[in-house]
Amino acid sequence: MTTKFTRRRILQTGVAAAALTAVPQVGWAADPVVKLRILETTDLHVNILPYDYYRDAADDTVGLARTAAIVKAARSEAKNSLLFDNGDLIQGSPLGDFVAYRRGMKKGDVHPMVAAMNTLDYDCGTLGNHEFNYGLDFLQNSLGAAKFPLVCANVIKADGTTLQKPWLVLDRDVVDEAGATHKLKVGVIGFLPPQIVQWDKGHLDGKATTIDIVDAAEKHVPDMKKAGADIVVALCHSGIAGGDRKGGEENAALHLAKVDGIDVILTGHQHLTFPGGKEFSNIPGVDAKAGTLHGKPAVMAGFWGSHLGQVDLDLTKDGSRWKVAGFKTEARPIYDRVDRKVVPKVASEAAVIAAVQADHDATLKYVREPVGTTAVPIHSYYSLVADDASVKLVAEAQAWYVADLLKTTPHKDLPLLSAAAPFKAGGRGGPNYFTEIKKGPLAIKDMADIYIYPNTIRAVKVTGAQVREWLERSAGIYNQIDVAKGGEQDIINAKFPAYNFDVIAGVQYKIDPTQASRYDNDGKLVAPDAHRIKDLTYNGKAVADDQVFVVATNNYRAGGGGNFPGADGTTIILDAPDLTRDAIMRFIIERKEVSPKADGSWALVTPPANVTATFLTGPNAAGYQPSGIKVEKMGDAPEGFVKYRIVA
């Protein structure tokens, strides 16, 4: 018989807990074993229903409504369970934008993400970095109606206190394998990337700062133990990465696992799944098959509701307290892919649908509002291997916006460049995760499709040398072609996020992937003698190292996001209040019709004849041809992708 936990008081930070003592009961086993199932959602990003607002079509690969069905099944299989969320809740889909920019959030309002989660009886949650994209007031108003507590130990307000309670202890009744009831105290602590002070500097300056994840854990975990916590679960909105700890890591889950007293780590932020995932192979301290970080159970539940993370613990008594004696981890998907088609494993939960139906309908009306027309199709199927019109539209709109704001400043006569990246370029997002807009009307949903993040516009003043290094950092998206080896070689570095592949419009250049990358995936200079950027020119002349430029970009990049040379927060000359996608919208409204095209400002150096350079894209790429490069379809690839080769 399945027994539901009895919710008891939560021991708040700083409140002394009474010593836990064993109370003899009838039927008490000599060596009781409690099986506890810990469940995780993470990186939901306001994906509640199985619907893609960008394509304005159903999508069986996303949605908390589907994850909720897996939650229901997982709970039915276990005597004891806890459900946690690992952050990035209120930003990330047009539904989130509708609430932020059209509907608004006053104190006392219920955010649709929270309304949906309230139907699932969560035990606790933490904050993600994207919670701060709309400001602290919006954050607090959005999460204020949550029927579950939130913890976060490494965001500190100006008065020295934490923005949320750093930790708490859940006091629960549990049933052992013999049917006897016991008391269990579960400590829960939360963390997020300390880089939010750079990424959302405009919202946090003077209001909040951050501390290192591991430092925060070492400060608070001993207090949790003093408060009686039998086991400690870390809600770590931070990913898994190797390397030595230096402090301030964005992806610090592996380092966190070394903190004494933490028993389970729920991870996120990277939009990957763990256990599993080739991205985590060969990292010392990580067992991607068993799902452990330095021997401790860990899980990462994908993104947008694609998976439910599950950690099954066997707990036994160690004196007066419980300890972890065994475990198993897995990430349970909401769909399968059979014969290249998505097959849902579960149906949506009716309660979740009902909780957000009105906001869903209002969002559909909102995103369908027209703003202009395009004379040509706009797509991103070849954006990682060729100059691309969808990226150039963003760059052109940014430059138009910045030029207007700089025309009365001392910077008005400096050469103006514009940096933009392809956000929807397949990868972990899947074979449908590409921008594709038909010729004809453009609606608000298309603005969000072209530019998916709520970034604001900034401009930086940099030198020609910094422009070159900026592009070298971007060129890390390519694997090095081994000319001596020859044969078929995948040209795209799957671990390099597409949003860090900046194209800089206004200069002309070539990229040679036969050379080593100067920078690693984290932006560290690793090959100082390597140079992939060739023939860098401005107005037909070679760019000089001491030449001065203004580069239009976004707040994430200008503030240090991605660790790009020339973009560390110190070179900013313009901090604009408007969203990039709003600037794109204004640009289109003013022109009424746009006709974006790739102008060949950059190109890959043609691979040598003995190398077949390949890349993956979506099935619909067959309907388009890239500009400035010849490609040829080779055949189907796993997970619904299609393989192409670059033709010499």
From TrEMBL:
Residues annotated as domain Calcineurin-like phosphoesterase: 36-271
Chief subcellular location: other
Pfam families xref list: 5_nucleotid_C (PF02872), Metallophos (PF00149)
Catalytically driven reaction(s): a ribonucleoside 3'-phosphate + H2O = a ribonucleoside + phosphate; a nucleoside 2',3'-cyclic phosphate + H2O = a nucleoside 3'-phosphate + H(+)
Keywords linked to the UniProt accession: Hydrolase, Metal-binding, Multifunctional enzyme, Nucleotide-binding, Signal
Gene3D superfamilies, per database record: 3.60.21.10, 5'-Nucleotidase, C-terminal domain
Domain (5'-Nucleotidase C-terminal): residue spans on this chain: 385-565
Leader sequence segment: 1-29
A GO cellular component entry from the record: outer membrane-bounded periplasmic space
GO molecular function: 2',3'-cyclic-nucleotide 2'-phosphodiesterase activity; 3'-nucleotidase activity; metal ion binding; nucleotide binding
Keyword flag Signal: yes
Name of protein: Bifunctional 2',3'-cyclic-nucleotide 2'-phosphodiesterase/3'-nucleotidase
Native organism: Microvirga brassicacearum
